[in-house]
Design a protein that fits this description.
Helices cover 70% and strands 2% of the residues. It is mainly α. Helix 7 (122-134) runs antiparallel to helix 8 (138-151). The chain is elongated and about 55 Å long.
Length: 206
């Protein structure tokens, strides 16, 4: 592995700080039989917060998410974001909550805000690409996935998400196989993706 690749991985680990618990609560691993995937960030949000009050607000926001009180969660994540103008993470959290409320314009604005704060945040890019997909902007989603993977080729969940986009929405099965395979090479215990690969190869005659 090159020095540049190792440096990219370290940057990804440093910037991908949204708590996994939030993604588990807000996204899950599958809905209504449609292939989907939650992000798997490497660090915890708590390490990025400065004051005890901010940590308390974050924990209260998480509790509100668990109770599906998304209005309160949005209020608290907005508060933390204002208190941390240089931190992209609460802005990503807020975008996820807005999506649960079906407030896609607000979610997009929050992700744009996150990327202004941290233009190289791969988690923000991944969520933005997912939002593009959910709002039918498949070309933009693919472009963003591919652009981000050029910088962070080892961000495995993005390979899976791009595979899903190519598979179900773009019907580009060669693309889907490529990115499912990249994901599967690392996540060797994910039998579901292995089945997706086998199915696509059978259907495409490969």
């Amino acid at each position: 592995m090159s020095c540049n690749s190792r440096n990219s991985d370290r940057v990804m680990l440093r910037t991908a700080g949204v708590m996994l618990a939030l993604f588990a609560l807000l996204q899950g691993c599958a809905t209504n039989g449609v292939k989907t995937t939650a992000s798997t960030p490497a660090a915890t949000h708590h390490a990025t917060l400065v004051t005890a009050d901010q940590k308390a607000d974050f924990e209260a926001a998480m509790a509100s998410v668990k109770k599906q009180d998304y209005d309160k969660a949005a209020e608290l994540f907005t508060k933390v974001a204002k208190e941390e103008p240089d931190n992209a993470i609460p802005r990503i959290d807020l975008a996820l909550v807005y999506e649960k409320q079906n407030k896609m314009k607000e979610a997009e604005a929050s992700l744009q805000d996150a990327l202004k704060v941290d233009p190289d945040n791969p988690v923000a890019d991944n969520e933005y690409a997912l939002l593009y997909r959910k709002t039918g902007r498949f070309k933009e989603a693919r472009e963003l996935y591919e652009k981000t993977l050029e910088k962070y080729p080892h961000f495995i969940v993005m390979h899976k998400n791009l595979g899903i986009l190519c598979d179900l929405y773009l019907k580009d099965y060669a693309c889907a196989i490529t990115h499912y395979t990249a994901y599967s090479a690392v996540k060797t215990d994910d039998k579901t993706v292995k089945m997706w690969i086998a199915d696509l190869k059978q259907r495409s005659g490969k």
